[in-house]
Amino acid sequence: MASNQDSLTIGAMARAAGVNVETIRFYQRKGLLAEPDRPVGGIRRYVSADVARLQFVKAAQRLGFNLDEVGQLLKLEDGTHCSEAAELAALRLADVRSKLADLARMETVLSTLVGECQAEHGNVSCPLIHALHEDRTV
């Protein structure tokens, strides 16, 4: 075990990684982070490798990987399974592209409906509400 100078309490690790303590505990329950042994009468201590692993988890989440996928990536983190990691990333990329296409469609529909609303001054019927009733959202 590292000396106290090289180790962190759970609160210090949370601050170092920019998360809260409950996030660390949640990741431990999910098996993404190990829970260090508690010395007799003492508190658990975390080392820099734990902080790095936590930062890895957060970085993967920022790229859209869910926690199961993060767990898979952690199993591949030795760097010798690049093709397997690339397969996971390709699936995530396809999902991102699908979401971008959905967002572009939503933008087009909303832009059209907002334009129709602005053009309908004085008309009692709202084009946006009417379009939603007719499900003109696709």
Helix and strand layout, with pairings?
Blueprint: H1 10-17, H2 21-29, H3 48-62, H4 67-75, H5 82-119, H6 127-133
Helix pairs in contact: 1-3, 3-4
Walk me through this protein's architecture.
The protein is mostly helical and 138 residues long. The chain folds into 2 domains: 1-65, Multidrug-efflux Transporter Regulator, Chain: A, Domain 2 (Orthogonal Bundle), CATH 1.10.1660; 76-138. 62% of the residues lie in helices and 0% in strands. It has helices at residues 10-17, 21-29, 48-62, 67-75, 82-119, 127-133. α1 (10-17) packs across α3 and α3 (48-62) crosses α4 (67-75).
Sketch the major β-sheet: none
Radius of gyration: 24 Å
Beta-strand content:
under 5%
Distance between the termini: 58 Å
Q: What is the tally of beta strands?
A: 0
The assigned structural class equals: mainly alpha
Q: What is the domain total for the residues?
A: 2
Element order: H for helix, E for strand = HHHHHH
What is the residue-mean pLDDT, rounded to a whole number? 88
